[in-house]
Amino acid sequence: MNLKAAYFAMRLCLILLFLLPFGRATLPLVINTWEFQHAADAAWRALQAGGSVMDAVEKGCSRCEAEQCDGSVGFGGHPDERGETTLDAMIMNGNTMEVGAVGDLRRIKNAISVARAVMEHTEHTLLVGESASQFAENMGFTAEDLTTNNSISVFTQWLKDNCQPNNRKNVSPDPSKYCGPYKPGPTLKHRRRREIDIHAHDTIGMVVIGRDGQIAAGTSTNGANYKVPGRVGDSPIAGAGSYVESAAGGAAATGNGDVMMRFLPSYLAVELMRIGTEPSTACETAISRIKRHNPGFFGAIICANSTGHYGAACNKIPGFTRFPFVVYNSQTNTPLLQSVDCF
């Protein structure tokens, strides 16, 4: 093929890709939140190597944990009020409806793998805190320090700023400082107004559908910046962070978990797809339900039904008007970055 012919062939491929309908059905499918293309690639490679959808979800989320995606997944991110980074993760099998999850996990980098161990080696669904970490160590996971120079720097600066902003309300700190100890009382008069930081709430949420229609989903995050120690967000909560049923579809959410977990958006989206609602509409409905009560919340959701159709939706707020997500299937033949307008 000469250079001119190769050029026109490339142009034709690009045009055909551009003309593909948004959310076109094809299996297998990997879809995940944000611009985390390496995560989608890792999941896809696991499928192509003969792995299960569970393997693919674990590999995809693990890739983000290792790469510290956007500083919001894995070790070395978002310190809590004590300066410690803790992790939340969940994995769900859409055939068996089994769930494994961990919250407030300490010292262990491989949160999604510990979540899978909870599913496969206990009768439980969710383990939290120090007990979750001890379980992980018993299962052979290596205990490591999750802090990094960056997380220490972030925490140090927060202390210099008198622990502002923070996640406390209706409390008064020690009058000599703004960093506690906190007691019930009037809100601090000079408490800094919290501004929404979209990078303070990111989660890798992933849905994988195999060629045979089996579906799995998973999430992993290091939670909210400066969270109160012990806080667990939406990511490890079935129906909130993610949810799947192979007969219907799967969904995964990202954003302000303290708000979103109250509405189980992933569960709602899957239930809507069960009765035939198109994925994009299911996503929009799940977001709309939260907006009615919390119009200024930050959040988004991805959805895919059992045939491989997919969609996404997000709440429009200042500074956040489009939500990026990644799709990998036989049509894209690569981890393709897409986005949706928020509403």
Automatic annotation (TrEMBL):
Q: Please tell me whether the keyword Heme is annotated for this protein.
A: no
Keyword vocabulary terms for this entry? Signal
SUPFAM superfamilies named among the record's database cross-references: N-terminal nucleophile aminohydrolases (Ntn hydrolases) (SSF56235)
Q: State the encoding gene.
A: AGA
Site Cleavage: list residues.
Answer: 202-203
| First and last residue of the signal peptide | 1-25
Name the residues annotated as catalytic in the UniProt entry. 203
One term under GO cellular component: lysosome
Q: Where is this region: Disordered?
A: 165-186
What name has this protein been given in UniProt?
Answer: Aspartylglucosaminidase
Q: Which InterPro entries match?
A: Ntn_hydrolases_N, Peptidase_T2
